[in-house]
């Protein structure tokens, strides 16, 4: 994004430079006696040469990183100052997440839960961003951000209970697996429609900024596919025009189910849409937790100090299949997956960083993986034993108070079950 | 140059006046029956429906510091002037314009409510609410249910001007209540005039569930009543019997209530029968008890709405009435509605469920 010196546009004596703004790759002749056009919709220099901008008119947004492929800090000045405990917590969350994904994915394959979505390859975005936020910041997530939930303190038990939809799921078993939410952890309950959370995040940020002495911002996660939805554009535009303290964090993992980004958009990714709409924008290496941390911490500072919306495009790769309903080898080569799962693995990279700092070793790592696996297995065994919520919860929480017509429907179902109850799996539900 | 402009303006004014006269003729498909009883004792003031809505929002902004009012062109008062003066009174951070994007407005409002504040979102015309359909139907309506009550979005009220106005054509005339009535979790409310507008809007704003408040735009200026100046609410989910009778039950909401009140008067004069008129007021949830008690008493029912016949909300009423009142019915439930076409511009007088079409059908209903 080379269009960065807009202020100069207003100086007549720098018209040459202003014209050059149209391109970083060519230098059209300076226009003599040019003036600045002052329209309600734009203030810009007049030119006499018609020129259409293209993708090539702009340099690509650079990808900010702190760590190289081997987990080494490239420029010591950029290494964030994070204490050991936090760094280890970030790493442990990544490992816990990857192990939970592995076991939950398998459990779906065994028919124990109905659906699951893994987070492989994007763990760095989760913990890097979560660690940079305050626990009181409000999270609007898409569905592939479980690391953020774990980092915030949601337990494996809470996550597994949701996937089983049992009586301890705060969502009362109403949603498919992976639709988490926790008021206690400031994580707004997820829904399946894509990008709907984006303008909502902006609205929540607006409400927060009006709270006296506000110290909370909002972070909104979304994918490269979701960014094509109308709601995404709405969110960017509202965030900018209404000065909302919101961080829009795009997880660009290369695929929307099977659709690769080259069929999802033209131009320089999702990040290219930020600055032209008035959002401070940066692109980071999403496989580098420290780069994500730095970007989100800086974005949070801007959001809170100036009510400035920020777009961060975190580049990554969706190493796993889209969901348990998908086989990604049908649309992408195995070698591609392998590359991102090995040399670009955020977990490996971060482990190497911790080892280089002397914070971690092989023995600790083996113990951590084992502990993480056991925790999930044990939790699943417990979750499976738990009953589903009482069936009448099917018709509760539609409204704050149950309207008479729904009361009538509860009664109808009760009457039906008196005669036909044996045909329903009533023993799976908690008694009333 | 100035003179020319003045002349142009003057020509334009004449033209507008002329168009207005033309549209008034087209739009006078009903006589307004004002509410004469105030729901609250105390001081009243003459208000049209626009002023009553403005008054309700004024009270909300005054008493609830978290409340914000926003939408397209809301800052200067809104194209129907319902927000007039409110930005000056409460500031630019509480009453403001948004970009022109209905899905953004609805989503933004849900977010405001999710963060615990009160959101009054204005959609400029109900005809343009469909880009926001996903946000309202999949998000606002399901927020409480899917989160197990953790993140309800009751702080959201979406206001949208609806229904026929005499010259609105396809995209400034629709009555989309039935689309939303099919959505558990939403509340859908339509006032019939200034008193009901103020009381119901204040209820919507304070309700623990998200509400869609549809405002028949033709009533903004044509409906005048003595409205209590103090704060009051009217219950959502309760219909009102506006005229008692024994020969038939006539049910409507919004502008159409006034058409049916006139039909009731005509029925008395021409047919010498007393018919009952019910204003449903709340489409979702709707007052089955009041409706069914009335139909059980009269044995005949005519439902009328401006929206098209097929899958209009009248269909739901008719189905429930036949199920609940079957042995009391002397005739099949009748529906007089807009035709199953898009809302037409120059054919509006023929498209609407006019008093004559309603009277015609009532006669058939009584003779059945």
TrEMBL record, chain A:
Top-tier EC class: oxidoreductase
Cytoplasm among keywords: no
GO cellular component, one term: mitochondrial matrix
Cell compartment(s), UniProt: Mitochondrion matrix
GO BP field: branched-chain amino acid catabolic process
UniProt keywords, alphabetically: Metal-binding, Mitochondrion, Oxidoreductase, Potassium, Thiamine pyrophosphate, Transit peptide
Cofactor(s) required, per the database record: thiamine diphosphate
Domain Dehydrogenase E1 component, chain residue ranges per copy: 91-389
Top-level division of the source organism's lineage: Eukaryota
GO terms assigned for molecular function: branched-chain 2-oxo acid dehydrogenase activity; metal ion binding
Matching InterPro entries: Alpha-ketoacid_DH_E1_comp (IPR050771), DH_E1 (IPR001017), THDP-binding (IPR029061)
Similarity section: Belongs to the BCKDHA family.
Protein name in UniProt: 2-oxoisovalerate dehydrogenase subunit alpha
The organism of origin for this protein: Diatraea saccharalis (sugarcane borer)
TrEMBL record, chain B:
A Pfam match: Transketolase_C
Subcellular location(s) per record: Mitochondrion matrix
Predominant cellular place of this UniProt entry's protein: mitochondrion
Enzyme category, top tier: oxidoreductase
Segment forming the signal sequence: none
GO MF annotations, alphabetized: branched-chain 2-oxo acid dehydrogenase activity
Catalytic activity: N(6)-[(R)-lipoyl]-L-lysyl-[protein] + 3-methyl-2-oxobutanoate + H(+) = N(6)-[(R)-S(8)-2-methylpropanoyldihydrolipoyl]-L-lysyl-[protein] + CO2
Entry cofactors: thiamine diphosphate
Domain Transketolase-like pyrimidine-binding: 47-222
Keyword Phosphoprotein: no
Subunit record text: Heterotetramer of 2 alpha/BCKDHA and 2 beta chains/BCKDHB that forms the branched-chain alpha-keto acid decarboxylase (E1) component of the BCKD complex. The branched-chain alpha-ketoacid dehydrogenase is a large complex composed of three major building blocks E1, E2 and E3. It is organized around E2, a 24-meric cubic core composed of DBT, to which are associated 6 to 12 copies of E1, and approximately 6 copies of the dehydrogenase E3, a DLD dimer.
Function: Together with BCKDHA forms the heterotetrameric E1 subunit of the mitochondrial branched-chain alpha-ketoacid dehydrogenase (BCKD) complex. The BCKD complex catalyzes the multi-step oxidative decarboxylation of alpha-ketoacids derived from the branched-chain amino-acids valine, leucine and isoleucine producing CO2 and acyl-CoA which is subsequently utilized to produce energy. The E1 subunit catalyzes the first step with the decarboxylation of the alpha-ketoacid forming an enzyme-product intermediate.
Designated name of the protein: 2-oxoisovalerate dehydrogenase subunit beta, mitochondrial
Organism: Diatraea saccharalis (sugarcane borer)
